[in-house]
Amino acid sequence: MIRGTVLINRDICKGCELCIAACPQDSLGLSDQINRHGYRYVQLVQDNCTGCINCALVCPDCAITVYQEPRAKAKSSAQRVPAL
Ligand code: SF4
Ligand code: SF4
Known about the structure:
By secondary structure, the protein is mainly beta.
């Protein structure tokens, strides 16, 4: 089974919430903080990402990078593989 996580560039994100709607795991949510452009940015709010890459595919600003790793190796120092 694949485990995933995302890296979000908060200064590119404009808080449009498309990625939040696209995430089947409800892993994403808006931060209470704002970025340097004045937008609330998206952050990971649950540690249940499966690395499906839906969020990265819908983001119009390419603000999200998805990483996938085998769940069995998630607790080790296994190298992460960028999915997108
Ligand atoms: S990769 Fe999939 S599960 Fe993970 S945050 Fe993005 S949409 Fe959600
Ligand atoms: S789709 Fe992209 S720009 Fe829109 S909220 Fe998500 S990360 Fe930010």
